[in-house]
């Protein structure tokens, strides 16, 4: 199958039967040694039985690009069989001309199409990496680059003086075999990227693991888990706000809070009691509000039957208070005191018995943060059962703005869940006790998507509003589902009714109006909606354009009365320091891809599963670095400790939702992004990972250590 994108002069011949997507953005954009965008070129030969020869695997021809101009090339593996594949139609590529960022995704999808037609999986190879000399973290790149192309020798610097580092512990060559599976994985590539419409195939993941997928237009990577209980009609129950937690003690510049993690029940459906795990026994947990400059101490007591870890997502805190995945709080009843290494690969970090105090200095900008369980191997099911809550940071700059506040400042924690016939939460854990074996059963390895949308723990609620401006703090608390939120109907004559004022790391410099808001797992956006553009008596739905059926509706607003409104959205919100790429001391590549882990399907960074002993990056305190992120499927990438700025998406400028300071970045299939950050605040070891929680639990996590 041949495909050509006219403007970027890329030609790819996809050898029949290649079923695994290349990982290093070979079908996306690469960055050459001068930091400019360029394309790799791939050629392959069709395979089949040659006359007079046995049916042996054939190796496709690979034309190496000019090293000076290209940074990557797909090193396709051996082909087991030939299958017919159709050509990309000219009409399919026409919308992409001139858009180098997206053409790669189309060719990536073509690989998937080839896999869909291969009823039995071929053996394929994923890109080769070279390990830096000595394997030390932060070692300079030498030998071959991440896609097998010769890079500059170790120790050589770019013209601007910045070193470009190969990730420590990069893998050797790996092979994978695709097999058939009856699972249904929803992998949403945008219409511009996936021009096929519906289709199905098998993804080679290695080691006998298997993953099936079907394109359904939901734009999420994961498998739909359907509820067994009869679901109620939407918009029958009012929205509730999680209670704001009061400190148990305030002394000087410190506020102390206490939270008990315990089993409880919640009434998601009328008359049905659902067992949950909750902070203070509620779903979601109580909201903590911390003013900047006052230290917040939260004492967590664990009365659950499993160990726990608490992470303040978006918080700039010392490593011992960040919630490292193996820094366990064992159950208070002592039931696991002698087994705290079980289920965590035998690795136990700083373990406490019964309780732990987390100290947060709150020396950061006003922002919507959240806290959730972060235990190694079992984050996804713990959060699914309810271990999540909001932590809001305020400061003088924010309070001085005339933004909506009080009852007109609404937090919306959006989650998807599935339920059994008896109302219990349904989740496909391999170990229902969440103690021994991590991960989920097939076919849910790509992510679990529920069919019930909860907002602050209420399915499809409604909210009565005055005809005034409201501030909505949006958090995607789903394990894997991506959201595209839109008002339906939009106000008459207003194409962009959602005015964004803040992102993960707080206020933007200036407000930005959008027709919709995209949110990947763990991302936060804050918007202002002017309901005065609707009349009393009107209803407005908040819908999810990435959903279908029961997941297309989120909640309903009911405009009930006119009221006085003294709020406004100023033209200038804040000042944001711009990090200069010229100040970066090095670059690193981080490749997020599906891979085999111990013979099972897993998710890896630079080909390696998570290990507490492996450090992918070791920046010095105060260093500014540029990280190039590459993906195969949807991966929301989250860095602990630091916030970052987006420099590029492929060859394009940052996306419309990439403004301000971020701690989580939504990346699509076969996409590359370039981010810049300063590693300051604290020294020590932190993690970064995909925030699709099933991916995280199945090893898509790495360490960086600030020295």
From TrEMBL:
Superkingdom: Bacteria
Amino acid composition bias (Low complexity), ranges on this chain: 167-184
Region (Disordered): 22-70, 122-184
Annotated Plastocyanin-like domain residues: 264-325, 353-397, 596-707
Keyword Translocase belongs to the record: no
Biased composition (Basic residues): 154-163
Membrane-spanning parts: 194-213
InterPro entries in the cross-refs: Cu-oxidase-like_N (IPR011707), Cu-oxidase_C (IPR011706), Cu-oxidase_fam (IPR045087), Cupredoxin (IPR008972)
MF terms in GO: copper ion binding; oxidoreductase activity
The keyword Transmembrane belongs to this UniProt entry's keyword annotation: yes
Biased composition (Polar residues): 28-40
SUPFAM superfamilies: Cupredoxins
PANTHER family in the cross-refs: BILIRUBIN OXIDASE, CUPREDOXIN SUPERFAMILY PROTEIN
UniProt similarity note: Belongs to the multicopper oxidase family.
Protein name: Multicopper oxidase family protein
Organism of provenance: Streptomyces triticirhizae
